[in-house]
Design goal:
about 450 residues; Rossmann fold; binds adenosine-5'-diphosphate; alpha+beta; 15 helices; 8-stranded antiparallel β-sheet
């Protein structure tokens, strides 16, 4: 087993990984920008190295600085966390070339799934149903041709996309003319790759994803699905497992398709296959070859520590349980608490003047903030994840309501009030929502 792991990330996810390491007796190295000198992930790690200025390009995305930090501190392995370099195949290769273990899948699998066009082709070949769509389209004429085949409305998406950014709905040829070039420019700006493609735009789907773990030695298990349909601007705000929408047979069917495909790929590591689900049909949209923010709810209902498993797999150990060993208990939900205005979602960086997290039975907080901490403006606005577990969905939601009531964060705006609002909606309480539901409720759909 590794003796020392460098965590190439910040915030709550860096802490999450640190916790798994310490429970396994592994020492940790934090890296940080100058904006994060006082961050909790730096304070708790056994060692820390400053890798650059606040701008992530020069620090958390600075590959030479991260590799140097690993060399100086004598780390054996690097965990990339979520975002930043976690789906960068080049980084994964360089980590290995420099003699460290990359805690994640092979660079080839990251590359394959990192481009949504090649990912969808691979998924189709593996027997996974995909959203009808096109390959890369170069210009409006080609896009109009493809859209005619697919049928309007279509969604223009970046092949290298992520984080819900740079997507545009085109409802007719004029929509293509209006948005295609803009989408290509945004894709170049965000992802350094201007290629875009089209997909049929589904009007009332749910976002259902399945968590898998594979050891690359034939062992593949799934930890059930997560329903992440509560979104704004294609970004998840609230997740739950199991999905209130799935029938047991649908869940089993999806699990079978997914685990068979993962075995067929020879995949190694943790991963998530994301689907849109509408009228009883599943359509693959993408695979994330990394840990996900919402992995916590799968941990709650299965008792499996997904980060510990990632580390074990990276160390070459086989999974020490089979699917039959995985027991699903109860219901779990996660509220993403962002430093944002609860109605306008305007980012609200600033100093936390008062902080009191909720506690009690079935409550988990993953957060790196504390009283006196200044939320920097440079990074993601997620400041805490509140995860609640209970025997069933109604009780779980009541427990979440209670936990949100207790949660005190003063000094920055947060989305706590937004979540409290959700819990007063009868439709939401009935589990009756789709990916566009929140935006319709907010009056923007
Ligand atoms: P990203 O990698 O940027 O997160 P995804 O492909 O995972 O992009 O899509 C993010 C979200 O965008 C989905 O959860 C869903 O809400 C919406 N979306 C994606 N594809 C479609 C589609 N074909 N029709 C309707 N909504 C979609």
């Amino acid at each position: 087993m590794f003796e020392k792991i460098l965590i190439a990330n910040r915030g709550e996810i860096a802490l999450r990984i640190h916790r798994a390491c310490h429970e396994m007796g592994i020492r940790t190295v934090a890296v940080h920008s100058t904006a994060d000198d006082n961050a909790m992930h730096v304070r708790l790690a056994d060692e820390s190295v400053c890798i650059g200025p606040p701008n992530a390009r020069e620090s958390y995305l600075n590959v030479p600085a991260i590799l140097s930090a690993a060399a100086i501190t004598g780390a054996d392995a690097i965990h990339p966390g979520v975002g930043f370099l976690s789906e960068n195949a080049n980084f994964a290769s360089m980590v290995e070339e420099h003699g460290f273990t990359f805690i994640g899948p092979t660079p080839a699998h990251i590359l394959l799934m990192g481009n949504k066009v090649s990912a969808k082709r691979a998924a189709k070949d593996l027997g996974i149903p995909v959203v009808p769509g096109s390959g890369a389209v170069a210009d409006p004429a080609e896009a109009r041709e493809a859209a005619k085949r697919i049928g309007y409305p279509v969604l223009i998406k970046a092949a290298a996309g992520g984080g819900g950014r740079g997507m545009h709905v085109a409802r007719d040829d004029a929509g293509i003319d209006q948005f295609l070039v803009q989408a290509q420019n945004e894709a170049t700006a965000y992802f350094s790759d201007g290629s875009v493609y089209l997909e049929r735009y589904l009007d009332r789907p749910r976002h259902i994803e399945m968590q898998i773990l594979a050891d690359g030695q034939g062992g593949v298990i799934h930890l059930g699905e997560r329903d992440c349909s509560l979104q704004r601007n294609h970004q998840k705000l609230f997740e739950e497992t199991p999905s209130p929408a799935l029938k047991p047979a649908e869940r089993e069917n999806l699990a079978k398709i997914v685990t068979t495909a993962i075995k067929g790929m020879g995949y190694r590591g943790a991963g998530t296959l994301e689907f849109l689900y509408q009228d009883g049909e599943f359509f693959f949209i993408e695979m994330n070859t990394r840990l996900q923010v919402e992995h916590t709810i799968s941990e709650a209902v299965t008792g499996i520590d997904i980060v510990r498993e990632q580390i074990r797999i990276a160390a070459g150990l086989p999974l020490d349980y089979t699917q039959a060993d995985i027991q699903f208990f109860g219901h779990a939900v996660e509220c993403r608490i962002n430093a944002e205005h609860p109605e306008t979602f305007k980012p609200s960086p600033g100093t936390i003047t008062s902080y009191h997290p909720p506690g009690g039975i079935g409550v988990r907080i993953d957060s790196a903030i504390y009283q006196g901490y200044a939320v920097p403006p440079q990074y993601d606005s997620l400041i805490a994840k509140l995860i609640v577990h209970d025997r069933n969905r109604p009780e779980c939601l009541m427990r979440m309501k209670r936990a949100l009531e207790e949660f005190v964060i003063v000094g920055v705006d947060t989305t706590i009030a937004m979540h409290q609002g959700l819990l007063t909606s009868a439709q939401f309480m009935n589990g009756d929502y789709d990916i566009h539901w929140l935006e319709r409720l907010l009056g923007r759909g």
